[in-house]
Specification:
Largest sheet: 3 strands, antiparallel
Number of strands: 3
Order of helices and strands: EEEH
Number of domains: 1
Structural class: alpha+beta
Strand order of the largest sheet: 1-2-3
Radius of gyration: 13 Å
C-alpha cells in the first residue's frame, strides 16, 4: 500500500492512498475540525443538488 501525505497543517491533513477495493484507484483522506467538516458537507450538498 502506498500513502502520500500531500499536506499537513496544524489543524488539517490531506492524503492519498492506493485503493484497497479498486485496482489502480485511489482513496482520498482528509482530517478537519467538526466545523470544517460541516462546511465541506454543506458545500457538496449545494453543488451536487
Amino acid at each position: 500500500m502506498k500513502v502520500e501525505l500531500l499536506s499537513m497543517e496544524k489543524k488539517w491533513a490531506f492524503l492519498l492512498v492506493d485503493s484497497r477495493e479498486v485496482d489502480g484507484g485511489i482513496e482520498v483522506g482528509i482530517a478537519l475540525s467538526m466545523r470544517e467538516i460541516k462546511l465541506l458537507v454543506s458545500y457538496f450538498v449545494v453543488e451536487l443538488a
